[in-house]
Sequence to fold (487 residues):
Amino acid sequence: MSINISLKKNIASKKIQNHILFCDENFNIQNLKKFLSKNEFQYISDLIKSSDTKKDILFFEINSKKTIFLVAIRKKLSPSEIESLGGKLYNLIDNRKKIDYLINSDSANNKIKNFIGYFLHGLKLRSYKFLKYKTKKNNKSINVSVYGNKNYFSANNQLRFKALEEGTFYARDLVSEPGNILHPDEYAKRLKYLRKFGLKIQIYDKKKMKKMGMNALLGVGQGSIRGSYLVTIEWNGAKDKSKPLAFVGKGVCFDTGGYSLKPAKFMEDMTYDMAGSATVVGLMKNLAIRKAKINAVGVVGLVENMVSGNAQRPGDIVKSFSGKTIEILNTDAEGRLVLADALTFTEKKFNPRFIVDLATLTGAIIVSLGSEYAGLFSNNDKLSNQLIEAGKKVNEKLWRMPLSKNFDKLINSKNADMQNINYIGGAGSTTAAQFLQRFIINKTPWAHLDIAGMAFSKYGGAINSEGATGYGVRLLNQLIEDNYERN
Fold:
């Protein structure tokens, strides 16, 4: 199933009988008289009196062919709330037999910039479904035509929304793929195709990484018959050679937990343990499509954490890319090992302005924040505040969690420089972040986003269906637009 949106200044077709109009928060339709026939106006006015006006959208069956939807525009709507309205409209039209709809932009009597753009953006984001492996295909296509002279948004803004949608959908597609399809070999292969968008892709395989000393990352993947990879994705959109913004993602394509085996229940969900990397990839695709005027680099570590005769054991000690040694006490604390090498590599090779890493790192963050906030850990107040504000704007919320030298003693090892878990217990997400911080060698501004509770939804949300959410693509794009992109 797909959704097609067209923008026209004149009415698209008089044959389309499903109309979407905007009114105020009290469903006062006096201003809609010119868009309705006299009989329609009276009929809807009478029905509104007995309708639940606390809802955001009401619809009225005028006859067997015609339906009119009324969308209430409440005072002081934020862009994310407008997007949610678009998502709610999609929920109403998704399962209807009717497939053609007209949105009258002139009925939206408001001064919110890009109102229609945000509304359609939410509608489009909510329409996503991963149906690739359904044998019975749903070929239904919903057509939404927007007509009117008001609230028209520019070609640049249309490109911006399109880029965000394509980046978010690509991230969702990657997370939705099963582990037998999107293993590290296939993932690395797919990333090569991003070159057609103007991105520079470099792939480091096992042989190259072994020579470089990336033993923390390689140790995680050594039990799999698949390869392990570090992939860099560069976008050079600034006219100068300014330092890039860096984004690092955990790409554990499937996580059994290794010898510290996970319980069988819900292990199938571990196909999304590469969601951090998917966000980075989706963000970079978005930046390339909209020709962002910044320099940025995405770095993803791609591995599979399996059990075999060659798999890493609890008690093993590895030497990381940084030169620091790590005692592996739990093979299911593998994501931080992948990120450890990726973070140091990114800092050393690219000397970025900042590094933001994303990972489905700990179940403990879900205990703390559920599916309402991602955990934010950082060594820099300015970057933290910028991320939190960006998250508020797109409703991809963050909550800052503590870091402190006092937590370091919980991951100090008797046998190596550090151990990969807090063996005493407690502060699981914080000690994981504290571990990562040790691999930021040159005090580069850094933020770690633990997105374990946000990357995948069992129930769906305002602008995402059940499944992969693509969390972080829009958040990081907003961070860039607000603070770093040059107009």
